[in-house]
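Working notes for the structural subgroup meeting. M.R. asked for a predicted model of this chain before we commit to crystallization trials. I am recording the input and output together here so anyone reviewing the notebook later can reproduce the run.

Input as submitted:
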Amino acid sequence: MVNNKGSASGLEWRVKLNDGSTEILVPETNFFRRIGLRLWGSVSELVLSCQSFFKKAWELGVDDPRKFIHCLKVGLALIVVSLFYYMRPLYDGVGGNAMWAVMTVVVVFEFTVGSTLYKCINRIVGTSLAGVLAIGVHWVASKSGEKLEPVILGASVFLLVISATFSRFIPTIKARFDYGAMIFILTFSLVSVSGYRVDKLFDLAQQRLSTIAIGTALCLLVSMLICPVWAGKDLHDLIHSRYSRILHVTQIWTTKTKRTVVKIAGLQANFARWEPAHGNFGFRHPWTQYLKIGA
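Returned structure, recorded in token form:
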């Protein structure tokens, strides 16, 4: 006869022998079997997580096929700009700085035309301004003697970086030129510091600026000519769909939903300002009015 008895550690199985005594049944334990079961459980959980992730990713792309197209556009832009690195004549033509064009495509190519144009213009302006100032400071420092040169370079980096960083807290600068201010800080610091050990600083700055111009121009062409996604149209559709849902379905617009819509609309309106005329939206379209409607 077999019975079980509760214990502090769980169930305890006993067998009643013919002589009336009982014997506790102890299950056989196998260390490698336990490890195998745990490993199998971990692998199964990982496979299920991957399946769930890819399912959600597929549903995201199906809901908005423009995301798939955007991925193809980024890949196309990188392939084209990589030719400046793979082909020797193009590589020599940019002075061996073709990698800067590749990096530019990676960091400035965004989903909408407005956001891409915003980053491209900010990068060009920030890089150009920082490069000109860095070359000017380097020329002044080089004429001041070997002892004062590092002092002037260090002081200029300190003062200009402080000023540019503080400008990022100004609402107008932060809304429209925050990326440009960051690029200005990066470029000025790199050119000023590296210029102390580089003889042909002007040539180096010119080559990097040309590769950045190539990368930004390619991003704009691909973004605007191949299935363009306009931030202005997305903003218009966002506000229109939200208010249509409220009017026709009598949906209650909670404070959280309203804040989310206003935040998204603010970003889209900022990017839409940079876009050229497209569709039903001409130059100087009153994008700020959408923010008032959303508020």
